Amino acid sequence: MNDSQRGAELNPARGIVQRTGRLRRAVFVSVVVAVACIAQGMPSPAATGTPSAPSLVVASQPGPAPEVTVSWDPGAGPAPTGAAVELWSKTASGSWEKQTSTTCYAGCASVAFRYLRFGTAYSAAVFLINAGGTGPASASNVVTLRNTCPVGLCITADSGKLRAPAVRQAGGLLYSMDGTPADAATLAQLKPGMWRGSNGDQPGNPWATATALNIPTTFLLSDVWRAKTNGGQITPWSDWAGYRDWVVWVARQTQAFGIRVDYWEVYNEPDNMNYNYYPPAQGQTVTADLLLTQFLVTYQAIKSVLPNAQIIGPSTSFWIEDSRPWAFSMPQFLDFAAANNLSLAALSWHFNDRVSPQAIEDQVSEARRLIAARPALGNPKIFINEFGIEQTQRIPGWDVQYLAALTAARIDSAGRSCWEGDCFTPVFDGLLAPDRSTLPDFWARVAYAEMTGSMVASAANSDNVGVLASMDADRSHVRLLFGYGLGCIQDPRCASSFPLATLGGSLTTQVTVRVPWRTGHVSVSVMRIPGTSIAAISRPSARALAPVAIVGTSRGPMVTFNVGPVADGDAWSLTLTPTR
Fold it and tell me: Are residues 92 and 185 in contact, defined by beta-carbon separation less than 8 angstroms?
């Protein structure tokens, strides 16, 4: 969301300018992109580093999804600190071409390449790395991806493969509440991983409401500055001393009144400030260098009062690869931060691109590569503090795809965007209707909030389906949440260009889960969250399937069952428990 939508004083009539991220969504790699070469009939670089070649390099298809996992054992030489891995595919002519590459760190021994193509043969090359350099490559076997799903859609989850803690990292919210008791009750259901806004700019006290529920907060400083200066009539660079004194005053006010601020955000979408934050005369003065200086001045002012303050940025409107006169690129920002010894709590940007949600994973991968190449930055977190597009955000199946992509990318925090009148009315970024009745996607977010314990590995055989799975800490429940999104005609704002101004067909769905219980049967509770309409609904009823027998296999105890049909736009919430 850009600043032209932040309340009536911010001129909401100007609307949203959609940007498309320039990183292409060809293949996602689970960590950061690096450069290496294949060692299977392709030229390889000479060994210039100290590690030996890895052994037992194996490429495999771990489930029904079109993905390849590459694993290896370290060589016999000096200990590696990471590995560079390339994935190559075989063309119709029989030659090999590089698809993508990745570097992983901290003693990793496997990586995953996702969103590949069924029927294509893949092979990988692994180079071990350490401070001394890069060792010689070892090639993997060739694996051809097969679609073995016997029905339209196959979903898998593996409770034996724990991922991150289930703390709703992708469930953040932006403004969109008044701080009333009704808001507090809604927040308690949604359990957002972050609330982003500014204190005292709305009726009631939404900041106090969020902190009372122990929800992490991000204070958006530029929104307060814009309100203070009558819609941006004064720029920080017209009076650096005055601006710095104001930032110091704000920091001291939060300290004096005991306002808990977990993260400080210098500005929102600085790349748009030349045309939708400042009036035309002030907007013409915006330059990339001035924006960078503003970040530095703000950072130093906050730290002068609150030395332990967690400061994030730059919160650009999209992932920016190339700078322009009025906006810096992400590499330029990171170079500036490293040169000025800025200890960023998180690197942040927005994902409102009209491309597949899986492109998030490409961008996060590139972010981690850029950070790793600048050791002075340390290890900042990754925040995508606005995500979603107006055409699909209210459709449950689409929203779950975003949640799944953000989770797979291992972000530390992400927040839902708000559109049109959603930002400054208590509708929780479009999860509620204006009369506060619950829209379908509200219930998908409640299902997401009910996932506790640890997230576990999950996958689908379709790029149009996102899957999340969790296991409670006491292993009493395994929960799945999946969403199918291809078209969007159920929302009147649906665009013909992206995604599709039509709906895909319904899918019979097979679900296979590795469960933490060895024998007996599993009870399965199924809740369909309908997405073929975005009209208000109460909580959908759950239904119980017939108990499913646990089958011992070489991969562990498994259950398999069918649900559906799953319609385009739907989200489905499944809860598995052992029978007693």
Answer: no
